[in-house]
Design a protein that fits this description.
single chain; 165 residues; four-stranded parallel beta sheet; 3 helices; Metallo-dep_Hydrolases_sf; hydrolase activity, acting on carbon-nitrogen (but not peptide) bonds, in cyclic amides; DPYSL5 isoform 1; Metal-dep_hydrolase_composite; Metal_Hydrolase
Amino acid sequence: MLANSASVRILIKGGKVVNDDCTHEADVYIENGIIQQVGRELMIPGGAKVIDATGKLVIPGGIDTSTHFHQTFMNATCVDDFYHGTKAALVGGTTMIIGHVLPDKETSLVDAYEKCRGLADPKVCCDYALHVGITWWAPKVKAEMETLVREKGVNSFQMFMTYKD
């Protein structure tokens, strides 16, 4: 059992909730970072921190699907690492990023993915996933793509069709 197993409960009350299909006034109950209920006059357990959102919009966090933290590509180096980039994302309301793994030609996709995870895991401040760039082609690349999907849960690859190589 965890030393501190208390739930973190938040009730966002009276805001204008914006969904993909409508906007309506409602309360949002969150427990341990997961939305549990959306509606009016919710029945919730005691001990929730109440945030008054009257007159304010309550919107989902954004997802940035193209980030390049801690990366060098085509002789350009990104100035943000995973810590600073994801911290800045959160300040702007982005709660998930998808970073790029861009292996050098002839480099193992699995090794490049693991290296990027090693840089990201201890530093990220928000949810994240990784695209894997296909920067060259060989039967080994196809096999490694299958390994990444099956064993690492990768479900996004980026292919470049504008380069000669």
